[in-house]
Amino acid sequence: MEMAMAAALFGAITVWSVHMQRVTPWFALDVGDADEYLRMTRQFAAGLPFVQAAGPFVFRIATPWLASFASPAQIEHGLPFYIINLTAAFVAAMLLLVWLRRFVDSPGVRVLLVTLWIAEWHSPARFTFFDPVYVDPLFIVFMLAGLLLVDLHAEHPRYSIAPVLALVAFIGTLCRESMVIVAVAFIATAFEPGTARPRRWRDGAWAVAILLTTALAVWLTHAVGFPRGPYSPLSQPILMVRTKPLYTWVLGWFFAFGPAILAMIAIDYARTLAFLRSRPHLAVYLVACVLLSFFGGTDTERIAAWAAPVVYVLAGRAIEQFREVLLRWPLVIVLAVVQLASERLLWPVPPLDYTIRPFSTIDSRWLQLREALNRMIVIDTHYGNLWSFFGSRAWHAVILAFDIVFVTAVVVLVRSFDRQP
User: Fold this and answer.
1) What contacts 218, CB < 8 A, 6 or more positions away?
2) Residue 274 burial by CB count (10 A; 0-12/13-18/19+): exposed, middle or buried?
3) Among positive and negative, which fits the CA dihedral 150, 100, 335, 16?
């Protein structure tokens, strides 16, 4: 029943996205990655054994290689990317539901969390209709599959998990080099509380073997892909240290999950910390996502969203713990409205081509109010404001202030209501 409900909701949100989303002319994007992945696909389709594109995109070979089996006309229209990414989005949604079953008892809460993930504007189910030429969806599938295998370590011996995880990690690394964070999470399983020293060294050896498998995949991607122009893996982290303000990095996490989800985790902070201490592999994975979201590039939100398996588990446990308080109608309506606005379910990702109209040129107060709202929640223009790294720093500061006040208010209200008889 859960699978059927999640599948139906996935279909409904996908159809809604097709209806309202204006497809971006991805071949003309001035952001680099779509053009580079398309260039790689053309080279694979031409039968070239090696591909050239800008780094680090050139090392993410799996999706462009799969897309290259389509006809040249289909490639130019993006059809294979739609097929690969939407299929991967559906599989990822089902895997996320399976993952949540391990930690969240309520079927309704599990379906709710999966729906929230599907409905996020930057999730594969919706973002693909804005820009189909990207490689994250297939990576997310292997990331979730890898985490599921990692979390099975307490129930099955390492030697039965490691070979399958090695294959998943290898293929996932061909999708995106960030798959290494799953291998690092597997290493952390050897250091769980109460693990005997001999077993710890034996388990650590299996984990290192997984890490070596990802290294082999990285070597293969570098043997097939060659950067077009100078490239250094340290250039992006150095650039982020110089140009990414800390407050926009924090805001990126609100943009990635919505203030209502982060408020749930803040409410249950004590149990959250205890949960992560008891499962160091999940704590290490979450920390890795936190670091990557800062150092990994300008799209903080898309990288932070890789933490969804852990973030939604923590939020789901909090919802179950404070269910009776959260179901009070005024509170649940406010939480729903704020979360829906953050996820942008009722309006599309706006086009890239827009002209900023100064407030001084707007005569009507109502139109000024509408323009202010547009800049805050990005209704039909101001695409740059969707991303914490781009857009208006002043408006981003206002949004962050609102999110912090909102989370604080929710925490205070819920915990005070919870203490009442």
Assistant:
1) 59, 173, 177, 180
2) exposed
3) positive
Residue 168 scores a pLDDT above 50: yes
CA 32 to chain centre: 20
d(Cα 344, Cα 5) in Å, to the nearest integer? 21
Q: What pLDDT score was predicted for residue 30?
A: 47
**Per-residue pLDDT tens digits for 228-265:** 988 999 999 999 999 999 999 999 999 999 999 999 99
Q: Is 182 left (phi over 0), alpha (psi -120 to 50) or beta?
A: alpha
364, with CB counted inside 10 A (0-12, 13-18, 19+), is exposed
Q: Which of 384, 397, 116 is nearest to 256 (CA)?
A: 116
**Alpha-carbon torsion (344, 350, 355, 361), positive or negative:** negative
Q: How far is CA 323 from CA 257, 276, 320, 421, in A?
A: 20, 21, 5, 15
- 286 contacts: CB under 8 Å, gap ≥ 6: 276, 307, 310, 311
What is the spatial distance between Cα 301 and Cα 382, in angstroms, rounded to a whole number? 17
Beta bridge partners of 225: 51
CB of 63 closer than 8 Å to CB of 80: no
The predicted model scores a pTM of: 0.93
For the chain, give every domain's residue range.
1-230, 232-421
Looking at the DSSP bridge assignments, the partners of residue 51 are: 225
Strand-pairing partners, residue 52, are 226
